[in-house]
Amino acid sequence: MPEHNPAVESAIEAELRLLDPEIRRSPEQVGALLHPDFCEFGASGRFWDRASIIAALATETDPGARPVTTSHMKGVQLAPDLVHLTFDTDHDGRRAHRSSLWRLSGQEWLLYFHQATLFGSAGR
């Protein structure tokens, strides 16, 4: 059984909030979870910075959309202020392996880097 790690647990809680459709529709709430230097390599291959991902999530998240399903989420604390999470998502049949780096900024864990890679049924 994995040991209790408050840093990893905080990063997981923040990651799950960021996947919540209601949070994703709110630029203020998304912005509160992203580090000022945030960047992402999306499953589409596109590069996202903080401003572009906040704008995109606010416009493309349908209020009736089904939530993203997560599985295999685990994390490791790499340094006192850095947590690495890995997990899989399924959103309406679009499946991706995901990797996130969360940095402690003051008292808050903020998403610093994210990458997603699409995979099919043989991907796990």
Question: How does this model look, in words?
Answer:
With 124 residues, this protein is α+β, with helices and mostly antiparallel strands. The protein has a single domain, classed as Nuclear Transport Factor 2, Chain: A. It has four helices and six strands. Strands 2-1-6-5-4-3 form a six-stranded mixed beta sheet. The protein starts with 5 loop residues before the first helix and ends in a 6-residue tail after the last strand. The relative contact order is 0.21. The model has no long low-confidence stretch (mean pLDDT 91).
Q: What is the overall pLDDT average? A: 91
Q: Using the 3D structure, state the CATH architecture.
A: Roll
Helicity range: 25-40%
- The CATH C-level name is Alpha Beta
Q: Report the strand count.
A: 6
Structural class: alpha+beta
User: What count of structural domains?
Assistant: 1
Q: Mind telling me the C-alpha Rg? A: 14 Å
CATH topology: Nuclear Transport Factor 2, Chain: A
| Main sheet: strands, sense, barrel | 6 strands, mixed
What form results from the Cα inertia axes? globular
Order of neighbouring strands in the sheet with most strands: 2-1-6-5-4-3
**Oligomeric nature of the chains:** single chain
Low-pLDDT residue intervals, each spanning 5 or more residues: none
Helix count from the secondary structure assignment: 4
What distance separates the N and C termini? 22 Å
What is the fold's blueprint, element by element?
Elements: H1 6-19, H2 21-24, H3 27-33, E1 34-41, E2 47-49, H4 50-60, E3 69-79, E4 82-91, E5 94-105, E6 108-118
Parallel strand pairs: 1-6
Antiparallel strand pairs: 1-2, 3-4, 4-5, 5-6
